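Colleagues,

For the teaching module next term, I've prepared a clean inverse folding example: a structure given as tokens, and then the sequence designed for it. I'd like students to try predicting residues themselves before seeing the answer, so please don't circulate the second half yet.
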């Protein structure tokens, strides 16, 4: 489910003008599903030893909003 949430979230962000970089504020409730899905992917990757994917997803969350990384246990 996390992969689907991630891709649907990216689609929605882009439809709303996000360019593929920059902040995705955790405080905006509409972004939380996407950020939660991305955090779930990071945690799953970490559990199976996919360190590059873990770091990519963790960094994406932290770069989107450091507050999200803290809230989702990735800080």
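(Answer key — instructors only)
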């Amino acid at each position: 489910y996390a992969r689907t949430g991630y891709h649907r979230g990216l689609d929605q962000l882009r439809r709303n003008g996000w360019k593929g970089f920059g902040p995705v504020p955790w405080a905006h409730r509409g972004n939380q599903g996407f950020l939660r899905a991305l955090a779930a992917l990071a945690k799953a990757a970490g559990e199976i030893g996919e360190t590059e994917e873990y770091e990519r997803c963790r960094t994406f969350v932290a770069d989107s909003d450091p507050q999200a990384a803290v809230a989702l246990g990735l800080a």
